[in-house]
Amino acid sequence: MKKILISTVVTSLVFLVGSGTVSAQDDGMLVIPVELFTCTYNSRQDPDDLDKVIDKWNAWADENELDDYAAWTLTPYYFGPEQEFDVIWMGAGKTAVALGKSQDAYLADNDGLDDDFEEVISCDSHSNFASVNFKAPPEGATPATSVLTFSDCTYKEGASFSAVSARRWPSGRNT
Q1: Is 175 part of a structural domain of the chain?
Q2: What is the distance, to the nearest Å, from the Cα of residue 36 to the centroid of all Cα atoms in its chain?
Q3: What b-and-e string marks burial along 33-62, b requiring 16 or more CB atoms within 10 Å of the CB?
Q4: Mind listing the pLDDT tens digit for each residue in 78-98?
Q5: I want to staple 98 with a disulfide (CB 3.0 to 4.6 A). Which of 89, 93, 163, 168 is the partner?
Q6: In a domain? residue 174
Q7: Alpha-carbon distance 142 to 68, whole Å?
Q8: How many domains does the structure of the chain reveal?
């Protein structure tokens, strides 16, 4: 259930991230590299405490010119006994290299921010993935139809990544 909730939240938000955090790949597909932390508030800590640390993080990111990374804190609206977190940190890079550079910079010298975060929240998972938009709506328009999402897929033998984006029409023509 936790995996489904995280996947649903992230899928929805990735579409809201917009073109500011996407990069066009050689084959025309848009790839958004994303990282997630699922966290719980420590005793006597709350969103206001986290906001104070995030203000410090924003200043640190500005000082380190991390313009290719954006992050959001997400608070679940739906909840239940299977949900084991209070807040999600979702970060995205314009490219995988940008995400990696941001992570490297933070791990190399975060000016004590790691301790500040750990005072407010405890994170039990850190994951990353790439969200791929195979066919963007024209001129950034909102799609008139539903969004279809696949995750944790594998290719059949001999298949290629670019073959996934080829659309087959009943008449046999491709677009």
Answers
A1: no
A2: 6
A3: bbbbbbbebeeebeeebbeebbeebeebbe
A4: 888 888 899 999 999 988 899
A5: 93
A6: no
A7: 24
A8: 1
